[in-house]
Request: fold
Amino acid sequence: MAKIMFVNRNAPHGTIYAWEGLEVVLIFGAYENELSAVYMDDAVFSLKKGQDTSALGIKGFLQTLPVLEDYGCEKIYVDKESMEKRGLKTDDFAIPVEVMDSAGIGKIMEEQDVILPF
Amino acid sequence: MKIGVMIQEGPSYNHEASDTAYKFIEAAMAKGHTIQGVFLYDDAVTNVARHMEPPQDDRHIARRWSELGAKGVDIVVCVAAAKRRGMKPELIVDNTRISGLGQLSEICTEAERVVTFGD
Amino acid sequence: MLHIVNKSPYMKSSLESCIRVAQKNDPILLIEDAVLGAAAGGGVESLVQGALKNHPVYALGADISARGLSSLTPGVKVIDYADFVDLVEQHKPMTWL
Reply:
């Protein structure tokens, strides 16, 4: 059993990393690990309500985000400074999140066994 | 110490990630550490393309991974990422294998450290 | 925790985000294009100098030589791949891709 944290920093859709950062949770959920995710820098946009990727012909995130919890990723943290810098507020997000300041994010990272960046 | 490695970036001559990862692994093995596994994710699956043919005076990235595999390092190519990119089992170099993301999960559980290289 | 940064701080904010979140005394390692930030006299030197107040800052020698950097911000320690391995042995790593 390991404490594994996915640290998402890339913007959605421009590259595949944000998508893979979700895929990985769905697989890791089948194993006995303690999972959590952080969204910071441009990745805060991955959580935004109202994303419509149909014109791009790619799968969006809005079906996956609400089930992260069912796959064992119960804690979703958002970096406060990244969110505010981009003009976002907590009610812009499609799922409930815990907003944390820089020191808080640093502290929870320190508690992990493994950090996987996406 | 058991060290796991994830690489997210290929197409292996595009980015330095594969080189840094390889040099890091070489140094770790020289110090007697165990490499718990090398997981090739995203475009990193092209690291092990069997038919790659770089210029003679350049490093041969796929051969390098294959040689490391021959030394007993488990080099795992993500199946979903491989399928997306047309990397069939017959198209990867010897001493590497295709498997699922579950392998990365196991590396994360078993290794004492997991280092990621990527873009 | 060991913070590994691989992006040029002139192009991306990874180093800034890393410095903002890193706990005091956590080592920061610059690899690949991130070593450009360690060049003395550059526009990001104050960022690196700020980091040095709270963190040991290392830069990978192979990447520095490859880029022909001869003069680095004082305090930045140049290390090789074996030292990189030692840092990983001493600290759990996080890569700021």
Observations:
- Chain B has four helices and five strands.
- The first strand of chain B starts at residue 2 and ends at 7.
